[in-house]
Amino acid sequence: MKYLYPLAIAAFVLVGCDKPNPAIDSKRDATKTAIDTEKKAVDVAAAEAKKQADAEAAVDKAKIEAKKVAEQAQLDADKKKADAQAELAKAKLEAEKK
To answer: If you write DSSP's letter for every residue of 4-48 in order, what string do you get?
Structure first.
């Protein structure tokens, strides 16, 4: 994109000084074309950045969900362990009574 400016300027120099109005128009058109090309490149870069951000957000959400599931599974296991320990204590108490 930045390489278009020197080419545009060189084209205007070669046009000649005896035709100032067409040279000015040509320079204006070349400048507009270069700017439009840069705008398109910026739009493409922004779209790519959005896609990347969306992908990263999806990965982060998946990591959060996986962590939540793992923590809940651990808590469920701890709950079952507490239940089993309570049952064991009750069974020992019943066994001692007999």
So the answer is: HHHHHHHHHHHH-SS-HHHHHHHHHHHHHHHHHHHHHHHHHHHHH
Give the H or E element holding residue 57.
helix 20-97
Give me the domain span that covers residue 24. Answer: 4-97
Neighbours of 53 (CB within 10 A): 10
User: What whole-number distance in Å separates Cα of residue 44 and Cα of residue 42?
Assistant: 5
Residue with tokens 């896609």: 51
Contact 58, 25 (CB under 8 A): no
| Total number of domains in the chain | 1
For residue range 24-57, what is the model confidence (pLDDT) as tens digits?
Answer: 888 899 999 999 999 999 999 999 999 999 999 9
**Is 27 within 8 Å of 13 (Cβ atoms)?**
no
- SS3 (DSSP) at 3: coil
pTM: 0.52
